[in-house]
Design goal:
Length: 67
């Protein structure tokens, strides 16, 4: 899965990033490499939590796919 990430320069130094497709998914880092690594971890965590919050009903099935 590929996601668009918006990287901002932080006023206090370093960077912060957000995944617009995932509401509230943000992270920060001192370098570009660090912020990219951190936002990758944040996005994976966001997806994990979102999957846990799904409540199945009788007319619905839940399956897992690898991304």
């Amino acid at each position: 899965m590929k996601l668009k990430v918006v990287i901002h320069t932080a006023e206090e130094g370093g960077f912060w990033a957000e995944v617009p497709a995932f509401s509230g998914c943000v992270s920060e880092g001192d370098t570009l490499d660090e912020v990219l690594s951190n936002i990758h971890e944040a996005a994976a965590g966001w997806l994990e939590v979102a999957a846990e919050r799904i409540i199945a009903t009788a007319d619905m099935r839940i399956a897992e796919i690898e991304i």
